[in-house]
Specification:
2 domains; alpha/beta; elongated; Rossmann fold
Length: about 200
Amino acid sequence: MKLLFVCTGNTCRSPMAEALVRKRLPQVEVQSAGIFASDGSAASHQAVTVMEEAGVLFAHQSKPVTKERVEWADLILTMTEQHKQLLLEQYPHTAGKLYTLPEFTAEDAGASWKLLQEAYADLETKRVRFASGYQGDPNRFQSEFMQAHEREVAHIRELEAAMPATDIMDPFGRSVDVYRETLKELEFYVDKLAEKIHNEK
């Protein structure tokens, strides 16, 4: 498997994830890149500090996302939903291999999205029906519709709250303690990634 991690500047999150995968999954070919990265910038000193604390080899120079790197990868994992959407705009053909790291590793993400999409579709059908027979003040339509379908709206909010997180916290420019928290988050998801790759063999 060829795996590409993507973040913004390729000096914190994606290279940290890359280094963790190199240690945890030596059989996986892995690279990292940044959507707005330049070539050859050093990793942030806070990232170097926390990786050394964790005993992970971490020698890194930043690289930008390129067509060649995108084509090379069998799987592209971004740090945030925004990174994912930006890549989809530029490389729409990657849709089948492009996920956020939390999204890809969440066991129930697909089922959760399906339930949420069905609930949205059901509410939209009811909104169209409500609109067709609505005789009140047009300015009050939305609030009256929401009140009339309070239970459905509450259900959607519950589903949204239960959705797996899709973003890895950005520690850029913050304290070493924040970088430690980001590292813990990355370690959690890389462990889940390792389990998923192992189970798919």
